[in-house]
Input
Amino acid sequence: MTKTTTITEGELEDLRGTVRAFLAEYSGEQAVRRAVAADPGYDVDLWRRLATELGLPAMAIPEAYGGDGFGLVTLGIVLGEMGRAMTPGPFFSSVILAAGALLASGDETACSTRLPGIADGSVVGTLAVVEADGAWRTDGFATTAREDGGSWVLTGEKTLVPEGSSADLLLVAASTPAGPALFAVDAGAAGLSAGALRTLDITRPISRVALSETPAVLVGDLGAARQILADVLVRASVALAAEQVGAARACLEMAVAYAKEREQFGRAIGSFQAVKHKLADMLARVTLADAAATEGLRAADGFDDAPPAAVAAAVAHSVCSEAFMYVAAENIQVHGGIGFTWEHPAHLYYRRAKADQLMFGGPAVYHERLLATLGV
Amino acid sequence: MTTTEADPLAAFADEARAFLDAHAERRSTDAVIWGKGEDHTGYFSEDPPEVEQALVDQARAWQRTRYENGFGWITGPESYGGRELSGVHDLVYDQIEAEYDVPDTGVLSLIGLGMIGPTILAHGRDEVRDRYLPAMFRGEVIACQLFSEPGAGSDLAGVQTRASRTEDGWVLRGQKVWTSVAQHAQIGMALCRTDPDAPKHKGITAFLVDLSLPGVEVRPLRQMSGGAEFNEVFLTDVHVPDDHRLGEVNGGWRVALTTLMNERASVGNEASTGVARVLSDGFLAALLHESGHGEDAAARRRLAEITADLTAAEYLNRATIRRLRSGAQPGPEASVSKLLWAQNLTRIAHLAAELVGPRLTADTGEWGTFSWNELLLSAPAFRILGGTEEIMKNILGERVLGLPKEPS
Output
């Protein structure tokens, strides 16, 4: 199991309170809207403060690489709050995807040179896996790596790369004659170009990245990308689940508050059973999702009494994706016409919910992934 | 995990394991083998009376063994053979016992020991407590609830069974319905109207009724699944002594709430053997393949959705136990678990019906086909028992989310 620094329930709650208060002050709805409208799609100053004042990116990075060494259970608190506030920023791409891939590679040199920058927030990382068909695969990449006098060059095109235009460090999966491998590419490298795409979820910038004979450094063993990407997917699925639960709870709370205050036919709409039962169903889905995410985080941290991480991660991704999508849609329904307007924040969650659900392949793919973990 | 502090429950758990090792066999953990084992999927008993009686006798004997070894009433007072330990100890014991093959004691525990026992303890007079509590927890006396009536379903406070004062006690007249285990029970806890002019919650009194008294008639009530788990109980001029009254005259609603609070905690976590097996993912996967749908994308998708939700529901139960173990108060999890339990079993029943196909409609003698009828015909009850889905959602909406009540 991963060695992690322990933290008590009370400390977790303190952390939640600190992050929530900070984001409530500096990442409210208007701040989020301003941030997504500006380049690079998030508030760079806020990101710096999250890194330096709160030290959030460092939390789940091992102490040997400049981090605090907490596990995903602890990081899940931060992710939940960021999902709740819909704070734009490279936390997921940098800390979960890029740092996760470096750690999974077991490449001591790559970890010691790259992770401290991610930990202190000075480097934004991302992971470029997906190609033209949008699939999260671990093998069969059209992007190829060629060895050229002891160093490597990459050629090909990656798409749906989170924060691909603003990242300082891209970890790119490519085919080699010895099997799929992972490579580190620095922003500004020769032959590298990134272009931002229009996105469904306007709070998470996505780019297409083209590589043409671009110099790259091998990360981990040649041919090892299958396992690295499978490991990253487990970690990313539970991290995403934690974010989804935070966002889903925000939708539920928003809908409940509105149902108490909005009156129609002379009474609060929340007193009508049709609305009350809808909100109870939302509560049930969120409660279930919370349990699924929590168990996924515990499993990824290697708790003795947790189920196998691959199973718990597949369950968490499936249940939390469905729950968030459901409450995001029902939140708009409870709000009636105002929920459909651009000015109301409900659509930001709705957009995020569907984008999250599709991020690693979508329901048909993750359902098969779950069945595969159970040998069905 | 990296937690280092000693678990304060560890000694208790060790003691429970030692007891179970000495008195029971460990449950085998073999994977499901299609075509092997009992061909049952149902929740409700459909056994012939002599088989059912034998199961009741086994349940009584196992409860007696537990009681004599200090595990019969873990949370109960020492004066009645209890241990005065916490509800968490109870949960720990249940978790450990689930690893062993022991008789199902639901007939005693779900209602009698789980709900009526704590109510007698809280509201009964000394005579009644002394007479019934040790006998109940020793497995000798089975108790049932005489709450529901033909005209009062979810609105329990609408009971019409009358109790009128006599010189030395009360005389009861009325009809109860949906009375689980009354056919095996010796006593029942009845809610009766004692003041028809008071507001409905304020004119009710609770009594403990000896079911062998003249005027008590228990008739089996056959349910849609074919068996007769429930009963109608007719009370015709039944004389109940005043010392069998629970709580104050016209204070019965408060007494009923004690019972109902204990009910909410127990429904949703119960698992009879047939249903427990249906809930194991190995069993559903075996059904998928054996029915020839192993490569059917739509069926696989439905199985995956159900499996994800079932597994998450199990995680929710684990999380609840962890929270309770760390001293937290119970939250809305029990009501949510009950809702999800009913929904999941209903979805399984319909997926199974689709996979089995026309062979579900007649008993061809083939293992694992017609037997899914049991689950299919139990499914509507899951959404009703312990409070209909609609009532559960009102509770979640009003008590957990704080939404306003429907104006009356």
